[in-house]
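1st attempt posting a full record on here, be nice pls
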Amino acid sequence: MLRGLQHLKEWELEDGAMITLKRLVICNCHYLKMLPGGLKHTSDLQELELVQMPRKFIKRFRKNGGEDLHKIQRSTPISLNIREPDSKWKPTPRSPLPLTTVVNDGR
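the predicted structure (as tokens):
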């Protein structure tokens, strides 16, 4: 989990690092520009959750033309969860996710 890293702009991940990562949560990292390229080598990744991230970052995962979409596409489906909580939302261990998308490479 990357959480509350307010000054994080870039994240570097070497190829082959974190290859057994199954779930990644990125929360309140408002200056993070993109996912690292090395993330495409995490073949076990099953879920990516974006919580309170800027719309500009979230747009990078759109199905048509999302600049970071290729970094999370797999032959097996991956769940992309995006939480944009309103002012009444309070985090709990099992908070429902307003948006869940399954992403794969079209095979």
